[in-house]
Design goal:
Shape: globular
Structural class: alpha/beta
Number of domains: 1
Order of helices and strands: EHHEEHHEHEHEH
Mean pLDDT: 92
Distance between the termini: 33 Å
Number of helices: 7
Largest sheet: 6 strands, mixed
Strand order of the largest sheet: 4-3-2-1-5-6
Radius of gyration: 15 Å
Low-confidence stretches: none
Length: about 140
């Protein structure tokens, strides 16, 4: 299936910037690199304390280059093509993105009802979430809700 654009959730990558990457971080970085190398238009979505930031391909590239620095979020705020408070997420996405895009969440951050339902309802988006392991399913007592 071909999508007009991809929207990668980069919330975890930004939150963990400047730290030693975990396995999940390395997988998410590999997806970011692959998406940036592909011809399909790419965007990034990040949830912050104040709301959401939207990055275009240039912003994603700049973010990738700054991930080893602790202040990556400051730079991401500067290169974001759009930003909004939480209640404005649907409007921001509709104004900047194509219908029927592919939303990818590899890092498990920002897996919220607001984000998932907004992508689905506002953009008729295809949602894909990478499952790193089955421990949350097989041993839910060991996980946070």
């Amino acid at each position: 299936m071909t999508f007009p654009a991809r929207l990668l959730d980069v919330t975890r990558l930004i939150r963990r910037a400047g730290r030693i990457p975990t396995g999940i971080d390395r997988v998410e970085r590999a997806y970011l690199n692959a998406i940036l190398a592909d011809k399909t238009p790419a965007f990034g979505l990040a949830r912050t304390r104040l709301g959401y930031l939207l990055l275009d391909e240039m912003g994603l590239g700049r973010m990738r280059d700054a991930l080893d620095q602790a202040d990556a979020l400051s730079m991401v705020r500067q290169v974001a093509v759009a930003r909004t408070l939480p209640f404005g997420l649907a409007r921001m996405l509709r104004r900047n993105l194509s219908q029927g895009l592919s939303y990818l969440n590899v890092g498990h951050s920002n897996l919220t009802e607001r984000t998932l339902s907004t992508v689905k309802q506002s953009l008729n988006g295809q949602i894909s979430v990478f499952v790193h392991d089955l421990i949350p399913l097989t041993h839910p007592e060991l996980q946070r809700p």
